[in-house]
Amino acid sequence: MRLHFLKNPFYLYIIAFATVIGLYLLRWSDLFPKLSTGLLLFFILTFIFSLICGKLFSYLRKPLFSANFFNKNDPIIVFGIFFCYALEFLYVGHVPLFTLSPSAKFMHFGGIPTFHVFLVTFTVFYSVVLFHKLISCFSKKNLLYFFLILIPPLLMVNRGMFIEIFFAALIVYIFSIQRLFFKKIIYVSIIVIGVFYGFALLGNARLQSDTTFHDKIAVPSERFKKNRIPDTFLWPYMYATSPLGNLQKAIDVAKPAYDFKAFFFLCICPDFISKRIYQHSNKLIGPRIAVSFTVSTMYYNAYLTMGYVGMVLLFTYQIILLFLIPLSLKTRNKYYVPVMSITCVTVILNTFTNMWFFSAISFPIFWGILAGLRENKKINRRKNDSYCVGQL
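Above: the chain sequence. Below: its structure as tokens.
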């Protein structure tokens, strides 16, 4: 099975949102409103345009795998990351993993203001780089450093970091292979299901749910109750589909403000900048299907600020980014695969919220481009580089 379509962010946009729509139509929760014709038509049109852009992207960028290998700076960088997190834990006065208890409410770990954003995003970026090195040349040393760098997200109980690193690593793996055989499909499917199950268990631990929590919050439908799927899997389903439900709820109930300034600072400008220069930088207060489900796809704020026009503008902005980001790096650049992997993950996670605005997810791309531009200069200075490059 050829895998080129899984290395193309435009195709992944189609796959991600089409999957969410398909799951949504299962109607496992009575919270979900019916999808409107206008919203379905919008997605159909964006799918068609993404398909055209995907074809053009495949022509401009062939799916190459540029290998990357262990170097003497890796242990220094990993140690530096651990040292920075130690400073953050000292600054806050606790380690979130060690404060989880049935009687304590989970609190988001903010670390050192401003510094925390840069540290978390660099950790995500370098985790993907280390996995890329592990795939390029497997060794116990590479495996050790990759697992070590996963410890800080665990200590912070940061599911978002785990999900981004996991999917980025999966895409790096896909970049490294030519064909996906049946046995590999089975292995990958088991791993993905296991990750989602662990995601749900961690969510339950964070929310301190009781035995009736699912019925109280998720409001499972009769269709769900008749199947034999464990209740724990209802949470991954709700997390995956409730954002679309919130978007549909906004379309059904809310009246767009048609405020371009608000649209720019709440949809385009990264949050770590907008919240410092725009007084209304907090999320817009819009209708939700339930108070427990707050995420609402990349298009929610775009609709509240500019209606369907805002959704089209945001989609256009994404199209521009998806061409500019990969074209900024040479395919032979050792950071090209990590950058493309994180970009693809950002597109996938846009089914939850606007990750281009949410810098904790999209900012690792900046670190990759920064390192990649420096690498571009090295490539330009030599005719024969030391990296293993092969077309898949």
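The chain has one domain: 4-242+324-391.
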